Amino acid sequence: MSVVAEAFTIDADGMALEAARWGKGASEIVLLHEGLGSVGLWRDFPARLAAATGSGIVAYSRAGYGQSASVPLPRPLSYMHDEAREVLPRVLRAIGARRVILLGHSDGASIAAIHAAAPTDECAIAGLVLIAPHFFVEEVSITSIAAARTAYQTGDLRARLARHHRDVEAAFRGWNDAWLDPGFRTWRIDSLLPAITAPVLIIQGAADEYGTLAQIAVAEAELPRPPRVEIIAGAGHAPQFSHSERVVAAIRDFTAACFSAPPQA
Prior knowledge:
The protein is α/β, with parallel strands linked by helices and about 260 residues long. Helix content is about 40%, strand content about 20%.
C-alpha cells in the first residue's frame, strides 16, 4: 500500500518548520531526524512505517535543516536539550498531539530521550524508538564526525547536502562544529534515563561508525524498565535504510504494544 506524504508548515511560536504527514491513523508517531537529516532525508521510511503500523506519521525538519527557518551559528552545545525541552513541545502542541511515540535517529534519538525524561503535560509519551542513540560521547563518534568535516570541505558532501538543505552551512556546521568542540566531550544524558517511564525500543547497527554497543549497555543499566533491543549485524548508522524490512517489523510490533497499553497515570 502506497502512503502519500502531505506537506505542511508548523508554526512553532513564530518559527516556520517544514513538516509532512503520512497516513491518517488515530495514533501518531513523530520522527526526529539525525544531525544532518531533514523531512526529505527520511526517504520512503515514513510511508513504509505508516503502511505497516496504521499510525499517522509526522516528521519535521528542525530549524536550520531542510526547508525550515535557519538559525544563527554557532549552535550552543546544549542544542539537543534546547530542542527537546523548548522546541519539541511547541511542535507537539502545534500538531495537536495527545499521546505519541517518539522515533528518533542519532541526534534525534537523544532529543527524544531528553524530552521523555521530562514530558510536557499536554502530550503523553506512549513509547520511544531510538535508532543509533547517543547517550554519551565516544571516540568513534568524534573520529567519524571529523572525517565528515573533511568530506564537507574537500569532497562532494557539501554539494550532496545542498540538495536537501536550504541553508547547508547551518545544517552542517551547526552539527559538526558542536560535536567537534572540545567542550562537547563531556556531553552525556545517561543521568536522565532513570526518569524515562515509557517503554523503549533501541535499534542499533553492529557496524555503526558513529557509536558502539556501549550505548546499549548504558541504557540497559539506567532505564527503569529493560528496553527492547534490536542489534542488526552488518548494519551501520542508518539501519532503517539498509535493513528496512527488519526495522519496520520491529517498530510495528513495538508500537502495537505501546498503543494498546492504557496510558500511564
